[in-house]
Design goal:
The complex is a heterodimer of chains A (95) and B (499). With 95 residues, chain A is mainly α. Chain A is built from three helices and two strands; from the N terminus they run H-H-H-E-E. Chain A is flat and about 55 Å long. Classes of the chains: A mainly alpha (95), B alpha/beta (499).
Chain lengths: 95, 499
């Protein structure tokens, strides 16, 4: 399926990646190529096949629902590009 | 046996372990020889963050432990660590600008286990950005360069990818071994391109905790080493259940080195007809045939098998991996760590996300995130993503069928060609680059263990490898088959030093 420029713009928006208008045609072309390659999957009969979930049948391990960590605010914020007064700082979200 | 007469940085883990235990060399001297080689190897751009202070401190601690006589096999062994592993206080940026300056406050499980065993970290290794690539050309650090060159040529070649820095560093003797990760072939393809050994264990054998996630259902870490024995020794130290990774298997880890008996008599090795691709170079075909002869000669029974869904592995992979990546990489938003774009007057939070991600991610990563976003979007989820997951189940079933019929392991080429030149693939369709993974990607989809072993050189003097694929959780016998292949192939070639 070919991806047109509008679809490419929409996908970029959904992915939260800014793509300049001038770059959209090239992106649309590349996405079309990659998705075209995926069309081969339509040749396979998948009737009654369950999607794969694990290598060998196994149950994911569970642990007690209890606090195992915490009180590391400074460490959590250490790598933040903008942290103020013990919080992550971002541009205003609500008007 | 006395210590080898070559420079210590070129030793295997096994040789260094024995020499360290006998006191024939100190961990500090062994580490120094690697640090010297690393400084002389800058042209390879393999080590992108050097950590000599940490290395020497760890080496001194290793010497103390060795002196006490209680040292595990990896004690004092100098390693390179792929940049994808979070290492406490040391830059860990997955070769991406979006994680520039990120210094984790924690240590990945794999590096913790290695350091607990006494291993020494020399520094962080180059790779493709977020492990997305097959040539190390998508790295924010620039290309890693293979120590290998074509006969009579100065053209710079790729060490493969995504673990390209790991492969270049091990092949050029900058370290004794390195960690790698493999989502579609990222350990095995670079190992094959550079004449070293690389194993991707069964999914769940090694903890993924603290490794920057690419595609969580496919990612596995493994060792990249100079010999199969070294792979066994290092995997031993990396493997095991980890409560912090719910997909890590709570299974006992066998003694991998003890499995290297060299006896494979009566074992059944399958040769899948679907791996004989149209247009496959005659040299690859011949190499594969030689591998068959070696295993037969060692007493294995070789049997033709069929894995009918092989041709759908790459398209299924290039749906599933980007889908998982688009979800995993949503966390890079300029809020908690790494890069944040400079904002203009009036920009809100959406502009911050969009500008940050446009500046921070390179083109291939952006492309994969967008492909993933598309295949997961409303209306396409079933058509692409769910269909790919079902095809994945069929690919796995192909393997289960041949294993149930008595096949112990499968022999295939590791790559469709020898290493190509850096920049040679720059203008081709992205899909063409994806074809590099054609022989390796099935193994990730099925979650199986796979190992790449260097077997010969092509007409240009470049290494070629074969891949052995094993049954789930049977790394031990797989390493033994690989050991037999390695012994019979007698691959000893090294890149001629030009750097």
């Amino acid at each position: 399926m070919a991806i047109d420029i509008d679809t490419a713009r929409k996908v970029a928006k959904l992915a939260r990646i800014r793509v300049e208008e001038a770059d959209l045609p090239k992106l649309a072309g590349q996405l079309s190529g990659i998705l075209g390659f995926m069309e081969e999957l339509n040749e396979v009969d998948v009737t009654g096949v369950e999607p794969m979930t694990s290598v060998t049948p196994m149950r994911l391990k569970r642990r007690k629902d209890e606090v195992t960590d915490g009180n590391i605010q400074a460490q959590v914020l250490k790598n933040a590009p903008d942290a103020r007064e013990g919080f992550f700082a971002v541009p205003k979200v609500v008007e | 046996m006395s210590a080898p007469m070559t420079s210590a940085n070129s030793w295997t883990i096994a040789a260094a372990r024995d020499a360290l235990r006998k006191g024939e060399i100190s961990a500090v001297d062994l580490t120094m020889s690697c640090l010297t080689a690393i400084d002389a190897g800058d042209a390879l751009n393999a080590f992108v963050h050097k950590t000599p202070e940490i290395a020497l401190e760890q080496a001194r601690a290793a010497d103390a432990r060795l002196a006490s006589g209680e040292a595990p096999a990896m004690c004092g062994i100098p390693l390179g660590i792929k940049d994808l592993f979070c290492t406490k206080g040391v830059p860990s940026q997955a070769a991406s600008n979006i994680l520039k300056g990120f210094k984790p406050e924690y240590e990945s499980t794999v590096t913790s286990k290695l350091f607990d065993a006494g291993a020494v970290m020399l520094g962080k290794l180059n790779m493709d950005e977020f492990a997305m690539g097959s040539s190390n050309e998508t790295s924010a650090y620039g290309n890693a360069v293979s120590p290998w060159r074509r006969k009579g040529s100065n053209v710079q070649l790729t060490p493969g990818g995504s673990s390209g820095g790991s492969a270049a560093a091990v092949a050029a003797d900058l370290c004794l071994a390195a960690t790698g990760t493999d989502t579609g072939g990222s350990i095995r393809q670079p190992a094959a391109f550079t004449g070293i050994v690389g194993i991707k264990p069964t999914y769940g054998r090694v903890s993924r905790w603290g490794i920057v996630a690419f595609a969580s259902s496919l990612d596995q870490a493994g060792p990249m080493t100079k010999s199969v024995r070294d792979a066994a020794i290092m995997l031993q130290a990396m493997a095991g259940h980890d409560p912090k990774d719910s997909t890590s298997a709570d299974l006992p880890v066998p003694d991998f080195e003890a499995a290297l008996t060299g006896d494979i008599r009566g074992k059944v090795i399958g040769i899948p007809k679907e791996y004989r691709m149209d247009g496959m170079p005659a040299e690859i075909e011949a190499l594969w045939a030689r591998g068959v002869e070696m295993l037969k000669d060692a007493g294995a029974e070789v049997r033709d098998i069929s894995l009918p869904h092989t041709k759908y592995a790459l398209p299924a992979y290039y749906v599933i991996a980007p889908a998982e990546a688009s979800s995993n990489l949503a966390r890079y938003d300029g809020v908690r760590y790494g890069h944040r774009a400079k904002l203009s007057q009036g920009d809100g939070i959406t502009e911050m996300y969009e500008k940050t991600r446009a500046e921070g991610f390179g083109p291939e990563v952006q492309r994969r995130i967008m492909v993933g976003t598309y295949v997961l979007s409303a209306g396409f989820y079933d058509a692409y993503y769910n269909r790919a997951r079902k095809v994945r189940a069929l690919i796995k079933r192909d393997f289960e069928t041949v294993f149930a019929e008595g096949v112990d392991a499968i022999l295939t080429p590791a790559t469709p060609s020898a290493a190509f030149g850096l920049g040679e693939m720059a203008d081709v369709d992205p899909v063409k680059m994806y074809l590099n993974d054609v022989f390796t990607v099935t193994v990730n989809l099925a979650g199986l263990p796979g190992i790449s072993v260097p077997v010969g050189l092509d007409h240009q003097g470049l290494p070629l490898g074969l891949q052995l694929i094993g049954r789930p959780w049977e790394e031990a016998p797989l390493l033994n088959y690989a050991h037999v292949l390695e012994s019979r192939a007698g691959f000893v070639a090294k890149a001629e030093k030009w750097w």
